[in-house]
Amino acid sequence: MRDQPRIVMGHGGGGVLSGELVQHVFAPAFGGQVLSALADSATVTLGGTRLAFSTDTYVVRPLFFPGGSIGDLAVNGTVNDLAMSGARAAYLSCGFILEEGVEVELVAQVAEALGAAARAAGVEVATGDTKVVESGHGDGVYINTAGIGLVPDGVDIRPQRAVPGDVVIVSGDIGVHGVAVMSLREGLEFGTGIESDCAALGGLVESMLAVTPDLHVLRDPTRGGLAAALGEIASAAGVGVVLQERSVPVPDPVANACAVLGLDPLYVANEGKLVAFVPREHADAVLDAMRAHPLGARAAVIGECVDSHPGMVVARTGLGGTRVIDLPIGEQLPRIC
Fold it and tell me: Which NCBIfam families does the UniProt entry name for this protein (predicted)?
């Protein structure tokens, strides 16, 4: 924070700068025990009922991209944050921030996409708000959504529960969303079409919980990618994580695009994937259940949780060496979620 006295784009990238902003500015100002968990969604008890509660804001550019739109992101991102606590999303709020001069037809297209995504995810948009900012002070449409859902009895999923021996599973190919958005925005071609993996993961999580309610950690690796998600979990639980780099599913188009642009796929955002820390005795059954679901067909074991190098993620490379997977400082690809 001393090196960055003013807000820069990296403060919204899900890496070190984002974490420092939350830790040193927002958390001390807001206080509260619930917030201190810093999970994808907060788990609260209200009237004897356990609820998951989450909010997020979407500023993607362009508004429509291969495989989705800002409307899809606004629904699926919040539904997924709730699912990472084991909750089934029930209701969403929706706030539109519109730039003066944007076409009403474009706003209608975004709203239609959002409504269709909500129906597909089985949630209802129950309340909302609209604000307009002056021309030149936005990218046409920004959206904020908040969501609530019920947490089943016996489910306790949070970053602090990762323990040595846990098996790390990812639900499928990584890096797809970030490359899809970037390729359209920058007019780049990588030989084959790449579409965003944007999807609601509630059904996949339900299939995993049907195997065992004792899933230790779930996280959707959005901003900062898989690297940021694993780094945050390792830090929160005080454990080490070892990845087998060759086991991480990176599709060829993503690998090729990252090679051309000098990016590491581990740091590229996803919008329809999750990473799970599962007790070893349940790992095989959970993996089978994930692969039986359409959104987990390419699920793979990519590593394990260890008691050495606490708070650090390392990858074992195909050449037999190791490298440290640091948290990103800022963000590689602005405005992708």
Answer: hypE
